[in-house]
Amino acid sequence: MSKEKEKWGMVIDVDKCISCQACVVACQSENNIPINSEDIFNQRRAIEWIRVERYWEGEFPDVKARFIPILCQHCGEAPCEPVCPVFATYHNEEGMNVQVYNRCIGTRFCANNCPYHVRYFNFWEPEWPDSLKNQLNPDVTVRSRGIMEKCTFCIQRIRRSKIEASRDGREEVQDEARSINPACVNACPTETLYFGNFNDENSKVSELKKKENGDHGRGYKLLDELGTEPNVIYLKKVDPSAKEEAHA
Amino acid sequence: MQEHIQLDQKQINDDLLSGVLRTPRWWLPAITVALLVFLTGMGAFGYMLNKGVGVTGLNRPVFWGFFMVNFVFWIGISHAGIMISAILRLTQAEWRRPITRAAEVLTVFSLMAALMAAPLVHVGRPWRAGLWVFPYDFARGVWINIRSPFIWDPSAVMTYLTASTLFVLIALLPDLAVIRDRTTGRARVLYSILCLGWRGTPRQWKLQAVAGILLSALVLPVFVSVHSIVSWDFAVQIGTESWHSTIFAPYFIIGAIHSGVSAVATIMVLMVWLWNWDKYLRPDHLDAIGRLLIVVATTWFFFFFVEWIFALYTLEDPEIAMRELQVLQWPWSGLFILFLITAFFFPVPLWLFKKVRRSFFWMFVTTISVNVGMWLERFLIIVPGTMRKQPFVFDWGSYHPSIMEILMVAMTFAWVVIGLLLFARIFPLIPLFDIKEGMVGRDEIKIGRRTVPASIRE
Hints:
Strand content of chain B: under 5%
CATH topology of chain A: Alpha-Beta Plaits
Shape of chain B: globular
CATH superfamily of chain B: Formate dehydrogenase/DMSO reductase domain
Helix content of chain B: over 70%
Number of domains of chain B: 1
CATH architecture of chain A: 2-Layer Sandwich
Radius of gyration of chain A: 19 Å
Shape of chain A: globular
Strand order of the largest sheet of chain A: 8-1-10-9
Number of strands of chain A: 10
Helix content of chain A: 10-25%
Largest sheet of chain B: 2 strands, antiparallel
Number of helices of chain B: 19
CATH architecture of chain B: Up-down Bundle
Number of domains of chain A: 1
Order of helices and strands of chain A: EHHEEHEEHEEHHEHEE
Order of helices and strands of chain B: HHHHHHHHHHHHHHHHHHHEE
Number of strands of chain B: 2
Structural class of chain B: mainly alpha
Distance between the termini of chain B: 20 Å
Structural class of chain A: alpha+beta
Oligomer: heterodimer
Strand content of chain A: 15-25%
């Protein structure tokens, strides 16, 4: 029997997020995402595979800013998958939800059915200024207009790490190796994001999952009640002023 | 119940073939205008192909807009055909006779308009949509995902389109033979080919009647399937809370019949006004369709009401947010009130009056109003649903249709007008044989001192 496949996932510690947007920029350059100009933003058509949502809590002057980085949750029961008429989005063996750009015809059905709003449509042909054309990542497809795209957990980095591991004769890729991490994880200055293999019991994400997914842990999943079984676990903000909730 | 106007068969031929054998004076200007609108829309489509879907007003999270609204709207209109020609045929409603063909033809062209609105101009890469609508790319092993409602859609629509086209063709055969006998030259050759050697032998008549009844019965499932499937495009989605409702299928079906039967009434009035067929389309017919509409509209309103109850009863935040946008925020609130008035509160009370039901002008106004309302209904389901999606208020959106979208929507309307006008120029829009059959069915003969019907319906 072959060894168990990986189940890639992420743990996001919301408590550490300072909304510096480094993850957004890193993702932008790693994954050949077109520049989101002011005009594109105003059209509400910006493409950010990871975005930091900002919410205000309380009334002025007693107001707090809350940040939450949101990216594709790589759901175990992904709502986007069954609705695509052409199988452009499907589940791969490593627990990831992947998009086949060549198959996509742009019905935008998947985007409508995504409760997290993390699927992005190429409304325009992507363009880069001349100075940035040599910056494009050769490992990532440049998408054309008319198709959907979304976070891939930087699958190109995972693939490269695996190839390098097999070249060097190593049994498996090391979880600690930063080269396997998605660009956003490596760019985060406060270590808000953790990436790893949930099927590996010794990985950092598995540790955090074990520690935080209990009655007294901070772990939760976004829109858990929908039953989408996301592969991203959020750790909630530590709020010293919050009242202790009685556990019935 | 209905007034008797007995006409002899020669007069029926002369009247009903007037649009085919001669070109009415208004025909050329009318079709020119429709063609211009259509070509402008095609131009907009070409522009969109060149630039990308960005030329529309769609954005994140409002990924579906005017095109999807029009897809649902035209599928709704297409329910006219099945209602009139299958249901009324099987229930032997006598008043359907002059209107069956117009309803079926309306069905055929509105289904094409629907396909134009949804797969063709809606998708990001239309040049690849063929692989989806006609999923027979066996060679490369690119299979379709049959779990997707977008696969159920084309199969339902194509089934309906095939059945309606067959309906039209089978009912046309005897009439085509009549035209063949009255034309010369190239037209005669064309009609000879089209009528498939119809001679009016008893065997041919029998086969034709059997085919008609068989088709009526066989397409009955389509009556519930097509718009249920269209509603499932929305209802299967957990990503848009306000669509995720089990009542959508019956609600959409009855809404489709509401708009479809209204559209047939509109066409009836237009046929009288444009071709002066007032001997065939009597106030009686409008009266009958008006009474049918009261029932349909009220049932639809009941479902509309229940859908609201379903939504509010859950007290779920996304639902409440969407309803709040629908009824309390300008301009949606204005559209909502307009929708309620045009779809129900203006036409239905008026239909209660016999004078209104028998008036061509008022039936025209009220049925147009219904379809304005039903268009708005779909708009108010689709767009606010996607605008206020789920608890992530950071991503709530807005939507303004762009001029390109409006042009392409106008294109679908122009397409249906062109289709109907061209059809009416080449084929008789009122079935001659059906009218004659109705007349014969009403013939009476004297036996001794009593007057009895000359024929007994099988």
